[in-house]
């Protein structure tokens, strides 16, 4: 992946009403940012989104290079094509942001998310929860006589579908990691 070429001095527009003014449809994009791993970096990136009214659907952050002191921030956001370009340009202007990649437009990518699901139930509901977990290839990571905690890794859509099926069976709580994504291929 190569860093985006970001134009200096581009015009900015407010994102408070993402559908007005452009006539374009709202699209979901996955952005991957390589940043310096230092205090306040995440706050600056999040501040950019909050200050302009952009929504973050998913956010994951982790150090990826201990020796180089670099972290990767993966952000899933939505907006018109113009708003997405504006977000990428503004991210690129933050000094501690080393690279910005739009995985949605750069080619095929792999997205995964981890979900933990606490399901309480007895009898037939308990059996059905186990059967569905097996179909989805979810692991049982904790169990009591009245509940299970399932672990499931997959696309955000798979995580959503599993949660929807578990709700009527006694879904009590859900914890999700957010999207981790990489582009496919050798580069």
From TrEMBL:
Entry superkingdom: Bacteria
UniProt function note: Catalyzes the conversion of 2 pyruvate molecules into acetolactate in the first common step of the biosynthetic pathway of the branched-amino acids such as leucine, isoleucine, and valine.
Protein name: Acetolactate synthase small subunit
Domain named ACT: residues: 30-105
Catalytic activity, reaction form: 2 pyruvate + H(+) = (2S)-2-acetolactate + CO2
Matches recorded under Pfam families: ACT_AHAS_ss, ALS_ss_C
The family this protein is said to belong to: Belongs to the acetolactate synthase small subunit family.
Pathway stated in the Swiss-Prot or TrEMBL entry: Amino-acid biosynthesis; L-isoleucine biosynthesis; L-isoleucine from 2-oxobutanoate: step 1/4; Amino-acid biosynthesis; L-valine biosynthesis; L-valine from pyruvate: step 1/4
EC number per UniProt: 2.2.1.6
Enzyme class: transferase
Keyword terms of this UniProt record: Amino-acid biosynthesis, Branched-chain amino acid biosynthesis, Transferase
InterPro entries: Acetalactate_synth_ssu (IPR004789), Acetolactate_synth/TF_NikR_C (IPR027271), Acetolactate_synth_ssu_C (IPR019455), ACT-like_dom_sf (IPR045865), ACT_dom (IPR002912), AHAS_ACT (IPR039557), AHAS_small-like_ACT (IPR054480)
Assembly description: Dimer of large and small chains.
Record carries keyword Amino-acid biosynthesis: yes
GO MF, one example: acetolactate synthase activity
Gene3D superfamilies to which the protein is assigned, alphabetical: 3.30.70.260, ACT-like. Chain A, domain 2 (3.30.70.1150)
